[in-house]
Amino acid sequence: MACGTGQNTAGIITLFLAAICRTGLYCAGLFLYRGDIMTTVLRERIEMRVDAETKQLAERAAAASGCASLTEFMVRLIRDNAPQILQAQAAIELTSAQFDQFMQVCEAPPTPHARLKAAAARLDHEGF
């Protein structure tokens, strides 16, 4: 979902200075208001170092997609793309033939080698 599509961001996001940290710096939290519900959006920080060209490219893309800030754009990219990347890493896709072959191997495991059987018998004899 692109930033700024179907949403009126004016008045939705409020920067709230929560407290003064022990270091003397202001701690800021970003809160999102939806009706009577206030949800904390940002608690953690990600810092990145990029070259000037990459930063300008990101800023232009953020503006073109309707994002109010570079942070909003980066969060949107992460939220939209990270689940798909993780799913691709977690899922194993097989063809029907591959799945059938896998099931055959699982249902009819190979018989153990004679040396493996002898080792198991020795362990049984020793009480393991």
How would you sum up this structure, described in words?
The protein is an alpha+beta fold. Helices cover 46% and strands 18% of the residues. It folds into 2 domains: 13-90, no CATH class; 96-126, no CATH class. Strands 1-2-3 form a 3-stranded antiparallel sheet, with no helix packed on it. Helix 1 packs across helix 2 (70-90). Mean pLDDT is 74; it is low at 6-38.
What's the topology here?
Elements: E1 13-20, E2 26-34, E3 37-42, H1 52-64, H2 70-90, H3 96-107, H4 114-126
Antiparallel strand pairs: 1-2, 2-3
Q: Which spans of ≥5 residues are poorly predicted at pLDDT below 50? A: 6-38
Helix content: 40-55%
Query: Helix and strand string, N-terminal first?
Result: EEEHHHH
- With strands numbered from the N-terminus, the spatial order across the biggest sheet is 1-2-3
Strand portion, in percent? Answer: 15-25%
Tally of contiguous helical segments? 4
Most strands sheet: 3 strands, antiparallel
Quickly count the domains: 2
Mean pLDDT across every amino acid position: 74
Rg computed from alpha carbons, rounded to a whole number of angstroms = 28 Å
The first-to-last residue Cα distance is 58 Å
Number of strands: 3
Helix/strand structural class: alpha+beta
Shape descriptor: elongated
